[in-house]
Every structure is written in C-alpha cells, then in structure tokens.
Design goal:
By secondary structure, the chain is mostly helical. The protein folds into 3 domains: about 1-45, no CATH class; about 55-100, no CATH class; about 110-145, no CATH class. The chain is about 45% helix and about 10% strand. The chain contains 8 helices and 2 strands. A two-stranded antiparallel sheet has the order 1-2. A hairpin with a 3-residue loop joins strand 1 (about 70-75) and strand 2. The mean pLDDT is about 90.
C-alpha cells in the first residue's frame, strides 16, 4: 500500500500516533484480505517487513525452537505418563536447567499436615472430607485400594 506513505495522516510518526485507530483498521483490513496467515506473512517478508505469525497454543507447543530452548518441555508423571508443559520463556545463564520437576498430588499430604499442625483426629479429618471442605486426587485413593 505505497499510497499510505504520502497520506498526511500517516507520513510522520506523530501522524501515525494521532491516527493510530485508522491505521490499525487499514492494516487489519489489508491482512484480512489474504487467504491465510502464512500468505500474509509471506507478503510481508517479501517486502522485508519484520514479522512473525501469532501461533496457536498447539503450534507453540510443537514449535522446534521453543522445545529446543526448553520453553516447552516434556515431563513424565508416574500415573499419566509423558506430556508437555510450558516452561519459562526467559532464560538466564546462571539459572540451572531444571528438568527434574515434580509436584505432589492434590491433597496428598492433607492428613499428615492436619494431624501435625492442627492436631486433628482421624474422625475430624473424615468429617472435613465428608463436608467437602477437603478434596484429594482420586488417583491417590485408587492406588491405595
């Protein structure tokens, strides 16, 4: 859209700022005219316009660069197997790579903590479960059965 270079609304930084809503509408309409996101990116790249597509969640999780950097990483759970999780996008040279992450199950330590910290009895704890004040991962009960 070379005609925009001569449009007084957009030919200076101040003009673009003051007419940002109109410029945004023009750009969105222009991009919307492409048959696909990839076609729009290709057209911009052909003119050497710095750009990148906005990835869907599934595209981001499968992106090789994000996997290589550890922004998306594969973890293993003893009950549900391997799956992907998002990691930190920011990397610092002095931060060790943590691939050995683990999390306790929901409610895994309920009884232990309630006995130790609040001196609750088994009956009192059972009452909290019955009243649905406390919950725990059903897999914990299935494993102990």
């Amino acid at each position: 859209m070379p005609e925009l270079a001569d449009d007084p609304r957009f030919n200076t930084p101040r003009g673009r700022r003051d007419n940002n809503a109109a410029l945004k509408h023009i750009i969105e309409d222009w991009l919307g005219g492409f048959p696909s996101r990839d076609a729009a990116v290709a057209a911009l790249e052909a003119e050497r316009v710095p750009c990148a597509p906005v990835l869907t969640l599934h595209e981001a999780m499968a992106h090789p660069h994000l996997r290589q950097r550890g922004t998306v990483r594969r973890v293993r759970d003893e009950w549900i197997g391997e799956f992907d999780i998002p990691g930190l996008a920011v990397k610092f040279s002095r931060w060790a790579d943590r691939s050995d992450i683990a999390a306790d199950r929901l409610g895994e330590h309920n009884e232990e903590l309630l006995r130790k910290l609040l001196s609750l009895t088994d009956q009192e704890i059972a009452g909290l479960y019955a009243d649905k004040v406390l919950v725990r991962d059903p897999l914990l009960d299935a494993r102990n059965a």
